[in-house]
Amino acid sequence: MKKYFYLFAMMLLTATAFTSCSDDDENEINSDDLIGIWQGVTSDGWNKEDGKIYNEWENEPIEDDLIVVTPNDEFMLYEYNQRYGYWECIGSGEYTLKNKKIYIEVDGESVPFGTLRKLTSNTLVLEVGEKYKDNGVTYEYKEIATFRRADDIEL
């Protein structure tokens, strides 16, 4: 479902902090391994309102989504514009990687974006989430997205 792209764009606009959880923080990942173009494969996740799931998805195709990580510590999100046939950047920012967590620089502040659940030469699994209260209602969101290395895509 492309929810994490929406969240990233909103984070850049509003500087809202995003959090995610991971039980596996054993080994630090080398940020050089993250550099490249990553194309979405599938996504699993849910939305909750006051602890009750109201939207859930599994193996949702996300091939129209890209993550691009540059050697200059830039983290960019792209969506494929079906109407005009090109990749459109929908958000970008400087990133840091610490204990498998990706932090994005927003308005001079480092905010958590997501947690790397898996990173190999060809596969990236990213967990993102959010929890906040609005008018006394608690909203939660969690998504685990799988990407494949796609350095051959031209932007």
What does this structure look like?
It contains 1 helix and 9 strands. The protein is mainly β and 155 residues long. The chain has one domain: Beta Barrel (Lipocalin). The protein has an 8-stranded antiparallel barrel with strand order 1-3-4-5-6-7-8-9. The chain is globular and about 45 Å long.
In short:
The protein is mainly beta and 155 residues long. The protein contains one helix and nine strands, in the order αβββββββββ.
Determine the number of helices (DSSP H or I, runs of at least 4 residues). 1
Unreliable runs: 6-26
Estimate percent helicity: under 10%
CATH T-level topology: Lipocalin
The CATH C-level name is: Mainly Beta
What structural class do you assign from the helix and strand content? mainly beta
The 3D shape can be described as globular
Question: H/E element string?
Answer: HEEEEEEEEE
CATH architecture: Beta Barrel
Overall pLDDT level: 85
Order of strands, main sheet, comes to 1-3-4-5-6-7-8-9
What is the beta-strand fraction?
over 45%
Tally the structural domains: 1
User: What Rg is obtained from the alpha carbons, in whole angstroms?
Assistant: 15 Å
Number of strands: 9
